[in-house]
């Protein structure tokens, strides 16, 4: 199968094989992704993504199926003929500035949360659609990015549930679109396409010799969580670590109480009816933007090695602060945040990298502890999957910060979860998440990090709140 895995900074097509005691993925094509500034707006090059997707699938060789996952919240608008009305706008664009407050005047945060269970983020799909204003008059349908690409492949219009649940327009209890809520904030319910479950065979790819196309867990985190190699009965938390860190717990039902709302946790749909109870942490975006500011992305391994020798917790920042969301000069922002909290800014590149990694580990600690407290659950182990599982300093720092073992890997969790869902849809004997995770444990490398006993995490946290 081909797993098309589209991230906020790059995309790739992976060729995957699934069978009894067999699970593997191999990258066949990688391509850059990111925002394109045109005039005052920041867009996605969705046509370029589709071109690269077709090319990568073609390079993957003989296939039995294809599935697409991507980041959440962003979308394309189609007119009544099915034509794209314009390039999708990037979630880091400023067009939603002030929109959450406007919506709050109509629908309270408590009511929004009671229906959707979503973390309040300024770029949620609801806020983006409200910012469109009269431009919605020309639109007949909204399709999230994976659904848009699937539509171009097959002609099938719909919304896969795990990604639909990230829009703040999905009723997390009823598992339907929240059409009444949409109407109240000025979003026409006609824009919300039919919902479908992960594992649905959507049809045949017309440009690819009739290749079956499967709706996988199309939010990349949903696919990644499928491939968390947790053992049955384990009290585990997970961190899907990439541009964002999606950190939290897997629950059987949404947690919508006042404590969850106050702590700003999200309840997103997972595969097989699970709930991804998590919070978005700013993630490795801050590190990648720091390297971009220095024009030295190829030096990351050397910088991480130097950072590991720098003093731990010399300076920390609130990595989730709004100033770290847009692109820009992260080293200057880090220095400013340190001064604002009475700390000496890190001096030298290794110290800046150490500050970023320690701050991210501190945010992981904060998020996982709050998730456990809100739900009344114990966490005995943290699984880190995705690209951050390669970052030894981050994995060790997270183990130290959380005070529990970290199991790191698989790196390609999203692609593995993608092909596992495809395989089940196409007839492989993988009846449930336990069976899928057992196959991941049997076939994928996982590294073990024990807490080293480093102290000072409570004091570091207090610097950010004093």
Automatic annotation (TrEMBL):
Residues 64-226 form the Carbohydrate kinase FGGY N-terminal domain. GO terms for cellular component: cytosol. Keywords: ATP-binding, Disulfide bond, Kinase, Nucleotide-binding, Rhamnose metabolism, Transferase. Transmembrane segments: none annotated. SUPFAM superfamilies: Actin-like ATPase domain (SSF53067). Residues 237-425 form the Carbohydrate kinase FGGY C-terminal domain. GO terms for biological process: glycerol metabolic process; rhamnose catabolic process. It comes from the Bacteria. GO terms for molecular function: ATP binding; glycerol kinase activity; rhamnulokinase activity. Gene3D superfamilies: 3.30.420.40. Pfam families: FGGY_C, FGGY_N. This is Rhamnulokinase. The lineage of its organism: Bacteria, Bacillati, Actinomycetota, Actinomycetes, Pseudonocardiales.
């Amino acid at each position: 199968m081909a797993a098309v895995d589209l991230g906020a900074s790059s995309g790739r097509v992976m060729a995957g094989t699934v069978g009894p005691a067999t699970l593997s993925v191999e990258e066949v094509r990688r391509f850059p992704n990111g925002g394109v500034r045109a005039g005052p707006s920041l867009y996605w090059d969705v046509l370029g993504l589709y071109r690269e997707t077709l090319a990568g699938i073609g390079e993957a060789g003989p296939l039995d199926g294809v599935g697409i996952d991507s980041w959440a919240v962003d979308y394309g608008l189609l007119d009544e003929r099915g034509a794209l009305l314009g390039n999708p706008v990037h979630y880091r664009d400023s067009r939603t500035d002030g929109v959450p407050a406007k919506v709050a005047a109509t629908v309270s945060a408590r009511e929004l949360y009671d229906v959707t269970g979503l973390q309040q983020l300024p770029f949620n799909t609801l806020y983006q659609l409200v910012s469109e204003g009269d431009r919605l008059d020309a639109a007949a349908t909204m399709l999230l990015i994976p659904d848009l690409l699937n539509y171009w492949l097959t002609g099938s219009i719909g919304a896969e549930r795990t990604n639909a649940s990230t829009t703040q327009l999905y009723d997390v209890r009823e598992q339907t679109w929240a059409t009444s809520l949409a109407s109240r904030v000025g979003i026409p319910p006609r824009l919300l396409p039919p919902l479908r479950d992960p594992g649905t065979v959507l049809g045949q790819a017309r440009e690819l010799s009739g290749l079956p196309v499967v709706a996988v867990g199309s939010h990349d985190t949903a696919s990644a969580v499928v491939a968390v190699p947790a053992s049955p009965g384990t009290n585990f938390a997970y961190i899907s670590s990439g541009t964002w860190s999606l950190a939290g717990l897997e629950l059987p039902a949404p947690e919508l109480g006042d404590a969850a709302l106050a702590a700003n946790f999200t309840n997103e749909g997972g595969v097989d009816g699970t709930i991804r109870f998590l919070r978005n942490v700013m993630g490795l975006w801050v590190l990648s933007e720091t390297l971009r500011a220095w024009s030295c992305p190829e030096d990351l391994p050397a910088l991480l090695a130097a950072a590991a020798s720098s003093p731990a917790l010399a300076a920390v920042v609130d990595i989730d602060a709004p100033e770290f969301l847009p692109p820009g000069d992260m080293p200057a922002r880090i220095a400013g945040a340190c001064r604002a909290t009475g700390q000496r800014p890190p001096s030298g590149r290794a110290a800046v990298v150490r500050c970023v990694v320690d701050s991210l580990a501190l945010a992981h600690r904060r998020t996982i502890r709050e998730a456990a407290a809100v739900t009344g659950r114990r966490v005995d182990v943290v699984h880190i999957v995705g690209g951050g599982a390669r970052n030894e300093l981050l994995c060790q720092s997270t183990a130290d910060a959380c005070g529990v073992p970290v199991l790191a890997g698989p790196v390609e969790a999203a692609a593995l979860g993608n092909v596992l869902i495809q395989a089940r849809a196409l007839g492989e004997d993988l009846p449930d998440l336990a069976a899928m995770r057992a196959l991941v444990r049997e076939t994928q490398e996982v590294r073990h990090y024990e807490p080293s006993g480093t102290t000072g995490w409570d004091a570091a946290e207090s610097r950010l709140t004093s």
